[in-house]
Specification:
Elements: H1 3-30, H2 33-40, H3 55-76, H4 83-98, H5 102-115, H6 126-136, H7 141-145, H8 150-165, H9 172-189, H10 195-201
Helix pairs in contact: 1-2, 1-3, 1-5, 3-5, 4-5, 4-8, 4-9, 8-9, 9-10
């Protein structure tokens, strides 16, 4: 990239980061270009309609960027495949979401837009990730795909993210304890040996560079 392209990309990323925080705090409907610009300390014109012609385009960019980050984080986790990697990933992303970051904006957008039937990017599939980790933990693929189990997987994801989103009165340690209390009986019900012990030992992943 030349200097102009680099500057444009840096500007684009700064807008996406600011927009993600605003979407996390106010949701899709209440977030405006003016609000994003104000959060950046810049005029509305700085958002640049040549970069984001509409709010939907900006919301899509937030989701796509965060899905790339989730994929990179998941691939970098040192945890063993299965319940260990799944719980570490959920704890790590949960801590990020509750801080109102771009991750929080992406989760809220995925929920609100999905509920409204608006097509959203699918760069990171939470359900398929969870399904794959359960299979790695020893749950038969046919059992994970069974109609009786799929609602439990959705319950796991929706309840986890719901607890994170509504956890403003809890400390990090209190939230982690509540999440683990939710997961242990659910994973045990899947017939995963030693699930409670693995979950009890799991901690959010903190990369050395953070």
């Amino acid at each position: 990239m030349n200097q102009r392209q680099l500057a444009m990309e840096a500007s684009r990323r700064a807008i996406i980061d600011a927009a993600g925080q605003q979407f996390a705090a106010f949701g899709y409907e209440a977030t405006t270009f003016s609000r994003v610009a104000e959060a950046m300390g810049k005029p509305k014109s700085a958002i640049g309609y040549h970069l984001f012609p509409s709010k939907k385009d900006l919301a899509t960019a937030v989701i796509e960027l965060q899905q790339q980050r989730w994929r990179a984080l998941f691939d970098a986790l040192p945890a063993q495949p299965g319940i260990e990697r799944l719980t570490v990933f959920l704890l790590t992303t949960g801590m990020d979401v509750r801080r109102g970051s771009v991750a929080g904006g992406a989760v809220r957008l995925l929920h609100e837009l999905g509920k409204a039937g608006v097509p959203v990017p699918r760069g990171f599939d939470w359900f398929e990730m969870t399904r794959s980790e359960l299979v790695s933990a020893g749950v038969a693929a046919a059992d994970v795909d069974a109609a009786a189990v799929q609602p439990s997987v959705l319950l796991l994801l929706n309840t986890t993210l719901g607890m994170v989103d509504g956890s403003t009165q809890l400390t990090d340690d209190e939230l982690v304890a509540q999440l683990k209390a939710l997961w242990a009986p659910l994973f045990t019900s899947f017939g995963i040996a030693g699930a409670s012990e693995v979950i009890a030992a799991a901690q959010p992943y903190r990369p050395a560079t953070s």
